[in-house]
Amino acid sequence: MSASENETSIDAAQEEKEQISQSYWALVWWKFKKNRTAVVGAIFLTIFYIACVFFAEFFAPYPKEYESEYIEARSTSLHWRDEDGNFSFRPFVYGLEKVINEQTRKRSFEVDTTKKYPVYFLVEGEPVKILGFIPTSIHLFGNDSEDPDANIFIMGTDKLGRDLFSRILYGGRISMFIGLFSVIVFLVVGVSLGAISGYYGGATDIVIMRITELLTAFPQEPLFLALGAAVPITWPSTQVFFMVTILLALVQWGGLARQVRGLVLAGREEQYVLAAQSFGASDRRIILSHLIPATMSHVIVIATLKIPAMILLETTLSYFGLGLVPPTVSWGTLLQDANSVRAIRFAPHLLYTVPFILLAILSYNMLGDGLRDAMDPYSK
After folding, report:
1. Is residue 214 assigned to a domain?
2. Whole-angstrom Cα distance, residue 108 to residue 332?
3. Do residues 134 and 92 share a domain?
4. Please, what sign has the CA dihedral across residues 343, 349, 355, 360?
5. What is the pTM of this model?
6. How far is C-alpha 57 from the chain's CA centre?
7. How far is it, in rounded angstroms, from Cα 181 to Cα 241?
8. CA-based angle 19:21:22, to the nearest 5?
9. What is the pLDDT of residues 264-309, one digit of tens each?
10. For the domain that residue 352 is a member of, what is the CATH number?
């Protein structure tokens, strides 16, 4: 055996020894880092939550209520070279000029190359409150021109002249937070009832399992539409938000409860559980300190795969007008503006919301697949 091969085998043996000596969660983290797809998904989700959920007011150049006279205007592209071929290190955008077609009476906005507006970063803009309580007027990018035509619509505007990019960021806050919050409720209900059903058995098990079978017997989509239609339209947006979140969670906890029940049925016969019972530990302590923690690796994977499903459900309900409704901004309500042939034909930029939804769903799926593999660190 050559010296290089000997060193390689020694390094492999040393790495294997380090894996054996590490804790379970250290092994999970080590295996997760090796999965590049899962890491990429985690990075994209981190960007989404930073840009949409926590600091949308900073990254959005305009408040979500900001209206302009540029109705359904096209996107304004960034340029570094003007029409004369002059290069500029600072990007700039051209102005927009309203044009009326005399035959079709259709309004459109054409690029006006005679007007150039440089793009600045960390500029003073409309006053907003980050997370609703931190006042600021600094935005990531914008322009410092006092000209009312100096606008930067990198994804165009909607039917009221509002910046679509800003509204997508604000809408992502609602949609992604609903997905996260509804899964938390889903986990609390599903894990708790599943653990109780599996530990106690008997009549308690029969009642809980019959309820789960009743929930799964209904077709999911009509059930969601019916529950969404039951929410009164006179309710304020905050109340509708929490009601939609709770409905999404309470309808789907049955599947998780059955899985947790199976894990608890197997776990309650383990030696450490029997030892805790022999020392007089209460049922509550056994369930909370021993049985539920033993199911966490499975529950975490289910949660990461369930969040994108919840986001899609909220988007679908809001798209059909049965969930959140304007003026509340979510990805579903933004898609309502693009639900006609006319919108797709004359304002296709209104579909910019779709790539954000797809990327968020894909990132969660990549993260969930990576966690599913990492939670079994001893497999090859």
Report:
1. yes
2. 26
3. yes
4. negative
5. 0.82
6. 17
7. 11
8. 65
9. 888 888 888 888 888 888 888 888 888 888 888 788 888 888 888 8
10. 1.10.3720.10
